[in-house]
Design goal:
By secondary structure, the protein is α/β, with parallel strands linked by helices. It has a single domain, classed as Purple Acid Phosphatase, chain A, domain 2 (4-Layer Sandwich). Helix content is about 40%, strand content about 15%. It contains 10 helices and 11 strands. The chain has a 6-stranded mixed beta sheet, covered by helices on one side. Strands 5-6-7-9-8 form a 5-stranded mixed beta sheet, with helices on one face.
């Protein structure tokens, strides 16, 4: 019998996978509508974490030496600040081949883990540097979603190196390693979350139960369970689309940023101010004073530090989509800024990790990821 033409085999595979994907989405919609799917999964996930994490998952964070302040004359001895490290748009599972993007980038889950490691190590060094000058009394970590690549497009289902559930578990583990490393700074850490659009389990981005039908939420609940008992960390897993977080007397608004177009950030600010300035919102939330001071979003993959908006970058950076749409090159980075009682933004760093393209296991993040891929890679 003559073997099938490779193109015919590929076409049949795509057709079969598309049919399976449609059937799974239909099943997911029914489960999500019943409200039972995610609550049960989270309960089972927490049970698994309680029995498995301590026995099979090991991680030893690296402690950096503390810098001693060289002088107290440089700044007010009573001066203190909060560091804000924005994480998000990690897209664990996505694969970007160098040959497909004119060698502008290379990305997969192992590369992602090396980039996460670099972000966290750089953030620790920067915060240690500032600690040598004055007191950094807290660290706030808003996590803005799209932690996995997801399967909202059929081409992602074919090209991702992990299934969505496997990517969710790996993303949660990497977030845990990141927070464990940050804990070595010895300061209180607050985490607030928002889900993205890529890990959604519905055909379109839903308006109702947006968080509960999203795999980011599972990753966040997984992370929360792993951090249970850590008195240094206060984690708030929000089910709201928009969160208002106070830092000193400033108000920060965080959301993923889905639908906020590049260059239209001020329009989004105006719409949000209309919500927070409404009598209904102020009455039911005991809200007084300014509507908010800074909006923090992700989604665009185009890092920016604007007057009233901080746009986070992504781990993948330049992608096939950016090439297809002929977008300007954008950095693979995460934002780190400072805030004090008297100044909303005291300093800012865009931690660029786009130069990291190696998938070699050179640290605990990538060592774990490489072993994880051996078991779960597609």
């Amino acid at each position: 019998m003559k073997p099938l033409d490779p193109e015919i085999k590929l076409a049949r595979k795509i057709e079969r996978l598309s049919k399976e994907n449609s059937e799974l989405r239909a099943a997911n919609r029914k489960l999500a509508a019943s409200g039972a799917m995610f609550d049960d999964v989270v309960d089972e996930l927490k049970s698994a974490v309680a029995s498995d994490v301590k026995s099979s998952f090991r991680f030893s964070p690296t402690v950096l030496p503390q810098h001693k302040p060289k002088t107290k004359a440089l700044i007010d001895p009573a001066h203190a600040e909060t560091a804000i490290l924005v994480l998000g748009d990690w897209h664990i599972g996505e694969v970007i081949l160098a040959a497909d993007v004119n060698k502008m980038n290379a990305f997969n889950s192992a590369v992602a883990s090396n980039r996460v490691h670099e972000v966290i190590e750089s953030a620790k060094k920067i915060i240690r540097l500032h600690q040598s000058m004055y007191n950094i009394e807290a660290l706030w970590v808003p996590i803005l979603g799209d932690m996995i690549s997801g399967s909202i497009h059929s081409e992602l289902s074919l090209s991702n190196d992990l299934s969505d559930p496997a990517a969710t578990v790996l993303a949660a583990r990497l977030m845990y390693m990141a927070i464990a490393e940050l804990c070595t700074l010895g300061i209180p850490i607050r985490i607030d979350t928002a889900v993205g659009n890529h890990p959604r389990m519905t055909e379109q981005m839903p308006t109702k139960r947006q968080t509960q039908t999203n795999l980011d939420w599972l990753a966040f609940e997984f992370l929360s369970a792993m951090l249970e008992g850590n008195s240094q960390v206060d984690m708030n897993v929000s089910t709201g689309q928009i969160s208002v977080v106070p830092v000193y007397d400033w108000r920060f608004v965080i959301e993923h940023g889905y639908g906020i177009k590049h260059g239209r950030e001020e329009n989004a600010e105006d719409r949000l101010r209309a919500i927070f300035d409404s009598a209904e919102y102020r009455e039911h939330n005991n809200h007084s004073g300014t509507s908010f001071d800074t909006l923090i979003i992700g989604d665009q993959h185009r890092p920016k530090l604007l007057q009233s908006t901080i746009v986070n970058g992504s781990l993948p950076g330049w992608s096939d989509l950016a090439t297809a749409w002929r977008l300007r090159p954008s950095a693979a980075c995460q934002q780190l800024v400072g805030c004090s009682k008297s100044h909303l933004r005291t300093w800012a760093y865009s931690i660029d990790v786009g130069h990291i393209r190696s998938d070699k296991p050179t640290n605990q993040f990538s060592q774990y990821t490489v072993e994880f891929l051996k078991k779960h890679k597609r």
